């Protein structure tokens, strides 16, 4: 494995904080020997933790390091005599994990728990001792990252450990921060393991830890983990990519020249900005090469522009698009619409006069810190806000809870066994896009990209969504299988019948684990109902009653029979038009009926038509509804209560639980039509009634 893949300092541009301080790569073996020697004196930190203290003070100048000294002494004493498979003293591992987090800007409590994260699992130290010495907060984090006993769980130990960590992360996201740093250091030193064990650990890292790093926004850890996994699971493609990067190193790179041009443009515009070139990591280069084929010189990196304020980002964008040729399709505004993992930046691409195309990222320095370190950069997002900032609001401030984490914590409670949990967890984390939809009551729902109305129903109503019979998206009725887009407004319609349940084909459209687990559970407990939903569609049901009297329209053509058109079923006082058809009959249409234009186009003779004094009329109404038992009986009863005669009725087979009814009705008085249509709409399950 090459040094570039395992050493983050091999790309100093990607870690500007290291470049500024000028520190080289740490010698973990030297740190291990220093750890065994212990502190030089009781009034200062041991030399072995000096790098951690330096990195921590760079982000938190006023931090109290005394608790770190006590945590280190306990960790070093308890791990003394233990060795890693690489031959190093074990204390080098918690030290390295803590240094990773310190470089990301983690606060003191996180670093304290990181130093102790393996003590309860691998030594005689107990949680009670940790609590007594360091408090409840550190104890909770250490417990969260401690694995469950394999002797108790057997083959289920790994999924149950992740379940435990995720539940703990729901209460304190710092648990997962330590786990990610722990896995990164283990991956860096994975070469001492057998190849089969390397592959197994790399696959879990790819399927679970890397998606979690992405969701928590910790890009600095995610990108290095991706490269390490890439080298283990795809060694041939990794070597090809390494060769591409090595070959590019000997060629002229256009990006530094483009960066100089950008600096000049911004300097002339009076915008204070830092412009650097960031090389792509191995996996990013591999993806670009697969997408574009032959790589250009500017494809091996991107130009990063750091400014002070949000407004400066858009000022920079304006200058770039004015002085260079923008590639419009590459522009993305993640400041106005941040990603679900807290990421904010402006992305664009510009072409120079020489024909080079460079991708450009514009962000503030605070955005850059969050983009690299994610939730680690936010300290503890679970602290209760001050009373004056959120008076009367005791809810924790959590930027991750509204979306993927809350869904994960909800559905894991319903996962029936560790295998199901493990399988569904990987599938859930494979979703790399998040959308937000608005509920009809003004609330919001966070859903994975590609989610359907079924997913929204279970996210909002839980098991009550078994009775969901339809949805309106952006005010328009749609099927439950319809996919939702970011920003949609969804209104979910529930059946009044408590016995209603999901159809078996809902599983084909449900994307979230919560929905799939709930639907599968209901279908297993109601096998008869599930079978009924898969029966073949019935033929249309037709009900024909006695025919009513003749039409009450009169044409200005003596002795000509008059027929009301079935396509638009005009009734008084509709504005109508008459046309002579074959046989000398006059057909009467509403003036806005599409057939009127057709009649005139083919030269049919137009005849004036007026309504008789009698008020009775015949009309055809279409009722759109959701399928449920007794619906036809309830509709015909509502029609009868209005004193209307049913001439004929047709019920089409249900499609996605939606049923279409067609009624031809004889009304004693045309003025009662609006009241009749309202009465039909009031029948439970009916969502629309219209004229034919």
Helix-and-strand structural type:
alpha+beta
Number of H- or I-type helical stretches: 28
Q: Please tell me the overall pLDDT.
A: 78
Estimate percent helicity. Answer: 40-55%
> What is the terminal separation in angstroms?
72 Å
**What is the 3D form?**
elongated
Largest sheet: 6 strands, mixed
- Poorly predicted segments: 1-45, 384-402, 531-550
Rg over CA atoms: 35 Å
Provide a descriptive summary of the structure in words.
By secondary structure, this protein is α+β, with helices and mostly antiparallel strands. About 45% of the residues lie in helices and about 15% in strands. The chain has 28 helices and 22 strands. The strands form five sheets. Strands 1, 2, 3, 4, 5 and 6 form a six-stranded mixed sheet that branches. Strands 8-7-11-9-10 form a five-stranded mixed sheet. The protein is elongated and about 115 Å long. The termini are far apart. About 40% of the residues are buried. Residues about 1-45, about 385-400 and about 530-550 have low confidence and may be disordered.
Q: What is shown here, in short?
A:
This protein has 692 residues and is α+β, with helices and mostly antiparallel strands. The chain is 43% helix and 17% strand. The strands form five sheets. Strands 1, 2, 3, 4, 5 and 6 form a six-stranded mixed sheet that branches. The chain has a five-stranded mixed sheet with strand order 8-7-11-9-10. Strands 12-20-21-19-22 form a five-stranded antiparallel sheet, covered by helices on one side.
């Amino acid at each position: 494995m090459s040094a570039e893949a395992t050493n983050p300092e091999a790309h100093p541009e990607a870690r500007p904080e290291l470049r500024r301080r000028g520190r080289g790569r740490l010698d973990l073996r030297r740190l291990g020997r220093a750890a065994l020697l212990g502190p030089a004196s009781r009034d200062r930190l041991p030399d072995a933790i000096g790098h951690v203290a330096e990195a921590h003070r760079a982000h938190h100048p006023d931090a109290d390091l005394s608790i770190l000294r006590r945590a280190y002494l306990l960790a070093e004493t308890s791990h003394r005599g233990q060795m890693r498979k690489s031959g190093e003293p074990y204390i080098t591992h918690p030290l390295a994990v803590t240094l990773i987090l310190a470089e990301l800007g983690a606060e003191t409590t996180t670093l304290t728990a990181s130093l102790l994260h393996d003590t309860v699992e691998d030594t005689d130290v107990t949680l009670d001792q940790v609590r007594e010495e360091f408090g409840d907060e550190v104890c909770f984090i250490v417990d969260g990252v401690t694995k469950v006993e394999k002797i108790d769980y057997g083959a289920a130990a790994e999924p149950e450990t992740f379940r435990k960590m995720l539940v703990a992360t729901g209460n304190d996201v710092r648990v997962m921060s330590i786990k990610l740093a722990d896995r990164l250091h283990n991956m860096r030193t994975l070469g001492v393991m057998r190849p089969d064990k390397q592959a197994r650990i790399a696959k879990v890292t790819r399927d679970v830890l890397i998606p979690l790093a992405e969701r928590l926004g910790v890009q600095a850890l995610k990108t290095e983990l991706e490269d390490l996994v890439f080298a283990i699971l795809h060694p041939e493609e990794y070597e090809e990519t390494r060769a591409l990067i090595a070959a590019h190193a000997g060629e002229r790179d256009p990006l530094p020249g483009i960066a100089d041009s950008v600096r000049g443009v911004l300097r002339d515009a009076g915008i204070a900005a830092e412009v650097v070139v960031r090389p792509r990591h191995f996996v990013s280069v591999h993806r670009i090469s697969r997408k574009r084929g032959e790589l250009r010189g500017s494809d091996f990196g991107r130009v990063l522009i750091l400014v002070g304020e949000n407004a400066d980002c858009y000022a920079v964008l304006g200058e770039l698009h004015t002085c260079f040729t923008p590639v419009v399709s590459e522009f993305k505004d993640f400041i106005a619409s941040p990603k679900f993992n807290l990421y904010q930046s402006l992305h664009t691409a510009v072409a120079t006069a020489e024909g080079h195309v460079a991708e450009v990222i514009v962000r503030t320095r605070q955005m850059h810190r969050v983009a690299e370190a994610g939730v680690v950069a936010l300290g503890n997002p679970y602290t209760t806000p001050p009373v004056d900032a959120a008076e009367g609001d005791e809810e924790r401030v959590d930027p991750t809870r509204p979306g993927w984490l809350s869904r994960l914590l909800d559905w894991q409670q319903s996962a029936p066994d560790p295998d199901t949990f493990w399988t569904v967890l990987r599938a859930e984390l494979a979703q790399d896009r998040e959308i937000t939809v608005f509920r009809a009551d003004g609330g919001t729902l966070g859903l994975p990209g590609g989610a359907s109305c079924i997913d929204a129903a279970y996210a909002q109503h839980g098991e009550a969504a078994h009775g969901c019979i339809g949805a309106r998206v952006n005010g328009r009725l749609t099927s439950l299988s319809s996919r939702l887009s970011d920003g949609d407004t969804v209104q979910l319609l529930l059946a009044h019948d408590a016995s209603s349940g999901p159809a078996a084909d809902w599983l084909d459209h449900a994307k979230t684990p919560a929905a799939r687990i709930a639907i599968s559970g209901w279908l297993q407990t109601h096998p008869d109902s599930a079978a009924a939903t898969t029966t073949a569609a019935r033929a249309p049901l037709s009900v024909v009653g006695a025919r009513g009297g003749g039409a009450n329209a009169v044409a200005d053509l003596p002795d000509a029979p008059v027929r009301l058109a079935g396509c638009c079923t005009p009734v008084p006082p509709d504005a109508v038009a008459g046309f002579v058809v074959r046989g000398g009959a006059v057909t009467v249409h509403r003036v806005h009926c599409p057939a009127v234009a057709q009649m005139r186009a083919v030269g049919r003779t137009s005849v004036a038509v007026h309504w008789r004094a009698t008020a009775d009329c015949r009309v055809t109404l279409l009722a759109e509804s959701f399928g449920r038992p007794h619906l036809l009986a309830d509709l015909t009863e509502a029609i009868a209560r209005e004193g209307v005669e049913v001439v004929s009725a047709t019920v089409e087979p249900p499609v996605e639980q939606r049923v279409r009814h067609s009624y031809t009705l004889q009304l004693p008085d045309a003025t009662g039509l609006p009241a009749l249509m309202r009465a039909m709409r009031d029948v439970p399950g009916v969502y629309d009634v219209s004229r034919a």
